[in-house]
Amino acid sequence: MIVFNEITGEAVTIPDEPKRIVSLSPAITETLFELGLGDKVAGVTVYCHRPPETRLKPKVATYMGVLLERLKEVNPDLILMTTGVQRSVVNVVKNIAPTYPIPIPVTVYGILDFIKKVALITNVPERGEELALELMFNLAKLTKACPSLRTYVELEFEKPYTAGAHTYIDSLLKVIGLRNVFGNEPRAYFTPNAIPGDVDLVIYDPKPFRRRSSEDVINSLRIRGIKAMHYLITEGDELAHHGPYLIKSTAHKITEVCRGI
Predict the structure, then answer these.
(1) Bridge partner residues of 189 (DSSP)
(2) Residues contacting 234, CB < 8 A, separation 6+
(3) pTM for the whole thing?
């Protein structure tokens, strides 16, 4: 099939039934498995670790760079990726196999659209519809499930990042009833100069496979002046990626903590 891509401004010829898909995004990888296409995944990034079977797949890229020889070795017939910092990778890989970048969603509702696009490009539209509906029902159940707590979110990268109004993280918090302390900041991800006072809840999203205990993480946050009545430390990379797991699991974990406050 021939599909026009708004990001590249080009028509992309994609196999009707791709059999060797390379995913350059953890969210796409997770979505492919949720769509029942895990056996078609031929290569992933070093950051793809959900579901656990993903870790057995050949690693052909980091998030911002591609190991070209490894990519060629897995012989993909379709490469899926996101936009943002990955834009520079498009021209590097599109000569190896048909490449389709999908925009990063800026709202939690955009995650449903993102999933539908992955399903359409891989020619499993009915599965995509079922998954999107399942996630939509999940969101409906969680709407305003939390008390209106002032919440600070921190993502663990080379330096701390938080989420402003132009992110699916802020959107998710608002859906479940929380108030992002940077929810009025008209930008996406940034390192804050200072944390506003009177924070009720801190949600900290470490890198995957963290070695520090929750107590060590909380102590390090307090030393930096980030103090709150309650803390939630995720298992790692739960908020940093916008795959189905964010709605199916992480959102529920957050609401469970909030209901106990």
Answers:
(1) 163
(2) 203, 204, 205, 206, 250, 253
(3) 0.94
Q: 168-176 and 108-121 helices cross at what angle (nearest 10)?
A: 120
Q: Strands 21-23, 41-45: parallel, antiparallel or unpaired by DSSP?
A: parallel
- What is the identity of the amino acid at 234? T
User: Which pair of tokens denotes residue 116?
Assistant: 């539908």
Residue 2 CB neighbours (<10 A): 8
CB 101 within 8 Å of CB 5 = yes
Return d(Cα 28, Cα 120) in angstroms, integer. Answer: 13
238/89 Cα distance (integer angstroms): 24
Q: Tokens 């919440």 appear where?
A: 151
118, two tokens:
């992955």
Q: Angle between the 251-259 and 168-176 helix axes, to the nearest 10 degrees?
A: 40
Query: What does the block give as tokens for 175?
Result: 């859906």
Residue 15: is the preceding peptide bond cis (ω within 30°)?
A: no
pLDDT digits (tens, 9 = 90+) for 33-91: 999 999 999 999 999 999 999 999 999 988 678 889 999 999 999 999 998 766 678 88
Q: Which of 254, 243, 257 has the alpha carbon at shortest distance from 175? A: 254
**CB distance 7 to 62 below 8 Å:** no
